[in-house]
Protein 1
Amino acid sequence: MTQPIKTVQLPEGVAPARINDLVNAAHQNAISKGWWDEDRSFGEIIALIHSEASEALEDFRVGKQPDEVWYENGDKPCGIPSELADIVIRVLDAAGRYGIDLESIIAEKMAYNATRPVRHGGKVL
């Protein structure tokens, strides 16, 4: 069942960030924290994205709910939502590294997906 999205109220006059603004912010933060002092292989980047997905799965396997957030040491957000955010942040960083216009390709891919038949591909989990 689909749950309503919990939204954060932005201050008046503040627009939500565009995807490519998030790409630049995530990539610049990674650079400033030393994550690009040595170049990484594309395989390593994908493995790091995958590791965040595995952490979300582990939280679920130990009984955490998909919308459950808790804080370690009072300030570090933990839980499946946090791991999903980490996946997105790593994808944004990768897009920044490779100069990918993620905003345009997401719009293009969503438009294409809207044309696909119901449950296309027929694959099962």
Note: The chain has a mean pLDDT of 91.
Protein 2
Amino acid sequence: MRRARLLLAGGGGTATGPPAGDRLAASLRRLHDRWGAEWWALAAGLLLAVLGTSVIPAVAGAAGVPVLRRVRLARRARGAWERRADRVIALCGALAGEVRAGRQPGEALLRAARDSGGLGGAEAAVVAAARFGGDVPGALAVAARRPGAEGLLGLAACWRVAVDQGAGLAAGLDRLDAALRAERDQRADLRAQLAGARATAVLLAALPALGLLLGAALGAAPLRVLLHTGPGLGCLVIGAAFEAAGLWWAARIVRGAGAA
């Protein structure tokens, strides 16, 4: 039908689009971005509800959707924070190079903002202030309110000192760039050190599911015991409470170490 429509419309040939596999992969990516991975919890709950002939897994899966969505959004926000911080570091390094090359601060900031990929979504006011002689430190301070762009406060201080008191802007930018890079390296080192604790927490959290699979493989029917007997329901409630408390406590320890 597509070929016929093209020929009748005077196209003179067939359309050359992406392969069906690529279109399917793109559709799956769009579906994943729209719905998120948290809906797999509901799907798993529905599957366990069918296998165990009980509505409890479905209810638990539905309750886990907002929790997993919150975790996914927090991870996305953390990634955006890190990307914005990297752009600020790149901006400081590029601006120091432009100033050292002999350009005026305003022109250097325009070139550095273009070469470093922007100022984290708030570059319009800063670029306008630099181009038309506005309050560049004030615009940088406003841009620094975005998460991850806190380093722009140091850039604003360097700019104010260099313009008002005639100090060297390149030297201050070099020190600021070194400080921001050292802070980023420290965060990366801390994240690497906490990776083992996170992996241990995830492994311990997955052990109950492994136990259920092992019991099912041995023919013990763990779902029937947990979902259709009084002692099983009690064990399920107590185990779920301990599981949630353990995950919360492990996440609290990791967050506390990162904040320190």
Note: Residues 38-257 form one domain.
Protein 3
Amino acid sequence: MHDLPPTQATDTLGDDQALRLRADFPALAQSVNGHPLVYLDSGATSQKPTAVLDAERRYLETTNAAVHRGAHTLAANATELYEDARATVAAFVGVDADEIVWTSNATEGINLVAYAFSNASVGRGGAAAERFRLGVGDEIVVTEAEHHSNLVPWQELAFRTGATLRFVPVDDDGVIRAEAAAEVIGERTRIVTFTHVSNVTGAVSPVAEIVALAHDVGALVVLDACQSAPHLPLDLRALDVDFAVFSGHKMLAPTGIGALYGRSELLNAMPPFLTGGSMITTVTMEESAYLPAPQRFEAGTQRVSQVIALAEAVRYLDAVGMERIAAHEHALGERLLAGLADIPGVRVLGPPDSAGRAGLVAIDVEGVHAHDVGQFLDDRGIAARVGHHCAQPLHRRLGVTASTRASTYLYNTTADVDAFLEGVAGVRSFFGEE
């Protein structure tokens, strides 16, 4: 990675430093449809720096072996790298190494927690798992802003256990408000799960207030940190959540790797979801005993090279500085909002100003379907996300079926934002809507 000046408390990257970082990302050097690539889809998946690509390749070329399963040198070295990576990622989000469980992605992490509750509800886990058991009369609280990955698993858990699924409505800007949460969270609430940052509106949720409401009634909190872990300084211990998930592919790492955080005492009380090799202490023909967390949730052969790459991605982000990244993206988000406000026929979904927003913006262009907007931009080399972004209820609440989203990251510049704005400004005339 190119050296950058030391991070200052109010420092941002700026275009010059972002361009220096951009040189670390091979995919960003290409042209698309005859134009230099403008990549504004990091909210879906980020590009990967050479350091991360090299770390995974180096592991596969020199150290590839099954972890926790051999006494030979390669196996020992692989296991050491694997567990060092766990410690690195845990430190990045402010928790202990034994509180990080490797998953394929955040979706799997949420399903892991939901199915552990389901297993506890049919008697697995003994007395220690009592607090995870759900039944008729218990309530699971989600919000109207959730990605499907943080909604569908809880719908299924409610179906399996007889619990009731309730949701916190968003306001007219698609924002989760603490006062709305207070009207839904009550004495019957057992789980409260919500997004830290919306992948549609970019709105940052009032985490402290919602966590306090949940814990006041003894409920457990699950935080979807997919859009915060890559972009904001994140201290899960300070946020006081009980569980959290995030995905590597959104934070410079490969696909196929994610992490579940759980407070140690909770993970060790939860019955496992996936079972098999590597997560047991003793197996007889009649029954099995399980290892402590996190291994009890990591059955089978693990995604070791992806874990190594995620740790390298975290080191890269740390070297740049998460405060600096957040400030840079906030400035780009402000530029996006200001520019879009001057384009007739374009509606920004979410809060109208940049306060309490991440550096992503979703829009609806009057008279033009989001997919057509995306194709128009792609013809000009601009990569943006189109569709409902796996958040159909939120789009429905905001009165649209789909939107076009531009999401920024540390390698984006004001020129990227301006290219997007110029492209959007030409959409309606191109499709005869002016």
Note: The chain has two domains: 14-48+322-430, 63-318.
